[in-house]
């Protein structure tokens, strides 16, 4: 009983010493939070007055209530001012509670009291938690009462507030313990501040450095699968928790447990440092002498390497092809080692003369910096040559960049959220033909490495396309790499036929095979508008027809592989416009209440070898024999830029400086100018005769239908631009406009067009 009474008395005395911290906490949570909440609700009341006039009472009540509820969630949930309050209060409480450790007099006073160190730590630590939890709980309760009085409460508001309360306590403890640890390891409040910043930013700095060097030195480094976001930071853990709650409206238990583990470990380390902290450390920069050289080296090395990285970017170095600028990189990196180490030693000793002390640390930092630098430059650990053994691979995701995606690269997850192509493939693509893929990877990397060494002497017939590769290994490890594949290589093409022709690839990459798309079709909250055509001529398709066509398309897609897609031009394209109404996001439209929407566009190519799909389109009147209806044509203008002639003329006129041709392309709304220097080689030809119009119409395609793609397949002639002018009374003019841009497929320019548009000196 006496012990309990003594503990409570000690808590009370500690509260008196921390009265001003309690005042700050009360001002933040009990005063500011309810006030901001009240102002927010008042703002909603004013901004929604028009809703009562624009609709019936029941609907208006529902809409206004929902907007008020969103304000409450914004204030009391994860994204409100509470986060800011938590960080500030954790720093103040952590430092102020143990600030007596900065003063020798206060240390002597506390050491002379009959209170054990463990008990004193517990009292201060617990008080720092109570001065956050009690004002927070009081302010949240008052805010909820204000919300109830304004008709702004519902189950979602209470759920968000309570969930945020518990998660924010964990977040507060993470910052609180970091602040205490920084204080325990330092003897000066300024150095404590620096220490806290190091704890928060160090991992980010190291990750930034590693990613930067991988990008500079490794050809097969992939940004996908890597992140600069720290793993061991309460801020990043909290961010993940907030993201999951925003998307799924649940607390991510895995990340919450990880945050709690972080809180526990940092708290125990802080407590251990407190018990071991020597009394004579008061006033010094660092509490523990043994940590000084380690901290100095761990700070100096990444700072020096980042300094070198900055020089890389400034001089635009490429270590694969040249060493120009290497002197500056080495000089700046070495200078950063010396100055960084000297500066930290000056801080340690609070004496400028300290810069000349502990030279051993400079050599150690320099040696580590040099080792890491050369480890990247010469790929000591084999990062850039890594290809797993096929027997050790569970599955692979292979993600070509901009392949068969038309004008869109949007993918949908099962819950309707959109994903990137790589994220979608990582979740849904599981290639099992590991032998074929590893052969492709080795062949591609060997060829690419050899061509990188050659520099400008690379064979013109080669074309390397970028891909992201995800290796899932049997030991549970996931490895991310980039891969440059020569899509013009015969053997690579055969291997790509096996990979891209597989069901696993199509399910994890082709939009039209996704079960998620079928789920969206079954949900009322999504509105789909479907059209078929060639991007100029488009016909609206009913949803039932699209469902039938989609089923047929998925059967036809079994025929597709790398080669037949590469050697074909789409016969047409299915375009999908997906919109989702945001039910509570309303605004004042011209005719009353309008609801905000969000939308996405997707496209699916239909190729000539999709025979069953084409039969369906013909049967239902969507198929066009040509890409242009001749009865709609008023005239056609062909522009030939004659780039090769321009280049030769420019060389003759010595318009090339330093051996490099300055090619300029100017695009306007109606024409394209192409030339080198001041040489004009563009030639126009206009056609109105029916025979010529028909011959041209048979071999042109809309520019938005035949896009330059990953596989370097069929594409439009680069020299030519075809402008089709439609008749004023045609249906296409009303639907699309007076003209459209077309182009000739490579190798299909009519002879008379070539003759009419060739440049003649």
From TrEMBL:
The chain crosses the membrane at residues 20-42, 82-102, 122-146, 158-182, 189-210, 256-274, 294-313, 325-350, 362-381. Keywords: Membrane, Transmembrane, Transmembrane helix. The keyword Transmembrane helix applies. Signal peptide: none annotated. The keyword Transit peptide does not apply. Residues 471-581 form the DUF6449 domain. This is DUF6449 domain-containing protein. It comes from Parablautia muri. The lineage of its organism: Bacteria, Bacillati, Bacillota, Clostridia, Lachnospirales.
């Amino acid at each position: 009983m006496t012990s309990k009474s003594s503990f409570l008395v000690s808590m009370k005395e500690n509260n008196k010493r921390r009265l001003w911290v309690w005042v700050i906490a009360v001002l933040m949570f009990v005063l500011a939070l309810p006030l901001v909440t009240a102002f927010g609700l008042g703002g909603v009341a004013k901004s929604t007055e028009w809703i009562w006039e624009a609709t019936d009472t029941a609907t208006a009540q529902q809409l206004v209530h929902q907007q008020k509820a969103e304000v409450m969630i914004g204030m009391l949930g994860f994204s409100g001012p509470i986060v800011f309050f938590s960080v500030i209060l954790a720093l103040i409480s952590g430092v102020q509670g143990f600030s007596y450790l900065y003063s020798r007099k206060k240390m002597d006073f506390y050491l002379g009291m009959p209170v054990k160190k463990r008990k004193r730590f517990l009292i201060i630590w617990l008080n720092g938690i109570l001065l956050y939890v009690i004002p927070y709980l009081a302010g949240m309760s008052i805010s909820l009462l204000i919300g109830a009085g304004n008709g702004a409460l519902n189950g979602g508001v209470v759920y968000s507030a309570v969930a945020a309360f518990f998660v924010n306590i964990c977040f507060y403890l993470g910052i609180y313990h970091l602040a205490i640890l920084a204080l325990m390891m330092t003897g000066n409040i300024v150095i404590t501040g620096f220490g806290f910043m190091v704890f928060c930013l160090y991992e980010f700095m190291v990750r930034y450095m590693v990613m930067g060097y991988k990008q500079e030195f490794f050809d097969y480094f992939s940004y996908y699968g890597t992140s600069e976001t720290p793993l061991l930071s309460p801020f990043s853990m909290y961010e993940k928790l907030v993201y999951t709650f925003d998307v799924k409206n649940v607390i991510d238990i895995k990340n919450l447990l990880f945050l709690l583990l972080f809180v526990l470990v940092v708290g125990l380390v802080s407590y251990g440092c407190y018990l071991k902290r020597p009394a004579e450390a008061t006033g010094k920069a660092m509490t523990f002498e043994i940590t000084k050289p380690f901290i100095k080296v761990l700070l100096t090395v990444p700072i020096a390497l980042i300094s070198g990285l900055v020089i890389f970017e400034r001089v635009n170095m490429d270590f694969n092809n040249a060493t120009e600028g290497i002197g500056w990189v080495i000089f700046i990196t070495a200078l950063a080692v010396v100055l960084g180490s000297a500066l930290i030693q000056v801080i340690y000793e609070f004496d400028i003369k300290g810069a000349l002390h502990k030279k051993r640390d400079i050599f150690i930092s320099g040696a580590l910096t040099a080792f890491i630098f050369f480890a990247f430059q010469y790929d000591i650990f084999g990062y850039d040559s890594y290809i797993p053994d096929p027997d050790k691979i569970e599955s692979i995701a292979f993600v070509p960049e901009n392949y068969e995606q038309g004008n869109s690269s949007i993918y949908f997850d099962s819950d309707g959220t959109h994903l990137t192509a790589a994220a979608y493939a990582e979740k849904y693509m599981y290639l099992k033909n590991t032998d074929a893929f590893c052969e492709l990877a080795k062949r591609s990397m060997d060829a690419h490495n050899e061509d990188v060494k050659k520099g400008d002497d690379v064979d013109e017939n080669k074309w390397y396309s970028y891909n992201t590769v995800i290796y899932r290994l049997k030991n549970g490890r996931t490895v991310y790499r980039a891969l440059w594949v020569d899509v013009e290589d015969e053997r690579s093409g055969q291997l790509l036929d096996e990979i891209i022709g597989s069901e696993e690839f199509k399910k994890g990459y082709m939009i039209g095979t996704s079960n998620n798309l079928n789920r969206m079709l079954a949900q009322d909250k999504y509105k789909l508008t479907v059209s078929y055509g060639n991007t100029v001529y488009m016909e609206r398709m009913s949803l039932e027809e699209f469902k039938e066509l989609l089923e047929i398309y998925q059967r036809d897609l079994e025929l597709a592989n790398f080669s037949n897609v590469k050697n074909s031009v789409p016969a047409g394209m299915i375009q999908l416009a997906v919109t989702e109404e945001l039910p509570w996001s309303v605004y004042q439209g011209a005719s009353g209440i309008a609801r905000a929407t969000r939308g996405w566009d997707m496209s699916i190519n239909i190729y000539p070898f999709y025979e069953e799909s084409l039969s369906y389109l013909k049967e239902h009147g969507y198929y066009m024999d040509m890409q242009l209806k001749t009865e709609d044509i008023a005239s056609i203008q062909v522009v030939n830029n004659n780039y090769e002639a321009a280049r030769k003329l420019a060389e003759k006129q010595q318009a090339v400086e330093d051996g490099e041709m300055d090619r300029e392309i100017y695009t306007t709304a109606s024409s394209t100018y192409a030339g080198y220097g001041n040489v004009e080689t563009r030639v126009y030809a206009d056609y109105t005769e029916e025979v010529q119009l028909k011959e041209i119409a048979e071999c042109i395609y809309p520019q938005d239908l035949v896009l330059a793609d990953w596989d370097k397949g069929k594409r439009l002639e680069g020299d030519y631009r075809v402008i089709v002018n439609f008749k004023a009374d045609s249906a296409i003019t009303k639907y699309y406009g007076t003209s459209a841009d077309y182009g000739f497929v490579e190798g299909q320019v009519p002879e008379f067009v070539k003759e009419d548009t060739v440049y003649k000196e």
